[in-house]
Amino acid sequence: MSIKAKLTNWSNSAKRYLDNTFVFTLIAIFIGLITGAIILAFAGFNPFESYWAMAVGIFSKPKYIIYTIIKATPIIITGYSVAFAFRTGLFNIGAEGQFIVGGIVAALAGYFLHLPPVIHAMVAFALAVGAAAAWGAAAGYLKARFGVHEVISTIMLNWIALYLSNYLVMSPAVKRAESEATHKILATARIDLFGVWKVSEQGMAWRMENRFFHDLLKPDINIGIIVAILLGVMIFLILKKTTLGYELRAVGFNKDAAENGGINVNRSFMSSMAIAGGLAGAAGALQVLGVSLECVNLSNMEGYGFDGIAVALIGGNTPAGCFLSGLLFGALKYGGGKLQSMMGAPREIISIVIGTILFFTAMPKLIRYFTSRINQKREEK
Fold it and tell me: What is the CATH number of domain 73-335?
């Protein structure tokens, strides 16, 4: 085979790899980690020791893995929310506000309703998802009825949700005495695993005899990640196996063609934003019912919804991709704390790594343009 033929085969292979979204994402992650290593080195820290400290802080004990998964769960689900809207041609910048609405409704339902165990948690979760779905549908209605772009309306709804939540948290009937938080949800509304048993005398005795499970059965361990997996499957089935999903994707590809084909575009806008809002609200509900057990007076946004935007972009707007990128985000964020406590390195390095990964993931066309130019010049020579 001639040198020219070999170069042509090599360039074609390189192009196929770069056209592969998964491979390109791996390249972006690698570049992000390299960037973080360079900054750590300039700051006077050994990059290898720093990353090793993160890895040890994430994987060395079962409880660390559990905490990483707990950290990742709400980010995975808000990623689903943003990705679902993207797949249907909409930009759901309001996942943060929908997350807040789901959280405050879950906190109120978890305390004020008195229902049997399991049923109480299911009702609180359903109410939270319904409220957040309505919050998302409001943005869809504004777009359908008045032509208000969903980016503008969802940003405004984020702030409305924040201050509405703070108002409810600080109201006398809801606020817990000597705190700036709601009352703790009742035990019947909690979704943690093994509940009261794991802290009872019998449960503690069993855990002491089984050291592996002693670390594993931490108070925060809950069924959130299981719900996240089920929600991912549900999104896939809706988009790929239902008439509703077909209509929503058709509107996302080309709304004019979809409308000419008899699809009600305005109804699709509302349906898409309602589902996206419900997903973000589910993340907020799971966080309250399984981890925080309350809502607090927020001075600013918590960031789960905005992290969901990055997760959706890195995950290629697919449920599986969002699940994996959400786990990556959870590991980086939890490991960032270990980086600071074990090495003394600033945890902001992790934000730089995430930002770099997102930067390179969001600009594949630019890199593909440069590679095509290089291949073109090589072929000319």
Answer: 1.10.3470
How far is it, in rounded angstroms, from Cα 110 to Cα 128? 10
CA–CA distance, 235 with 368 (Å, rounded to integer): 30
146's CB contacts (< 8 A; 6+ apart) are: none
Cα separation, 302 vs 129, whole angstroms:
18
- The domain limits of the chain are 73-335
Helix (H) or strand (E) holding 50: helix 47-59
More confident residue, 36 or 92: 92
Residue 341, phi-psi category: left (phi > 0), alpha (psi -120 to 50), beta (remainder): alpha
Q: H/E element holding 243? A: helix 243-253
The angle that helices 3-19 and 364-380 make with each other, rounded to 10 degrees, is 170
Tell me the two tokens of residue 287.
Answer: 């966080």
φ/ψ (deg, to 5) at 182: -75, 170
DSSP class per residue in 313-345 = HHTTTSHHHHHHHHHHHHHHHHHHHHHHHHH--
Instruction: Tell me which residue of 360, 341, 259 sits closest to 35, measured CA to CA.
Output: 360
Dihedral (CA of 81, 82, 84, 85) sign? positive
Residues paired with 175 in a beta bridge: 182
Lowest mean pLDDT among 71-80, 218-227, 288-297: 218-227
Distance from C-alpha of 330 to C-alpha of 73, rounded to nearest angstrom: 8
pLDDT tens digits along 40-56: 888 788 888 888 888 88
Report pTM. Answer: 0.87
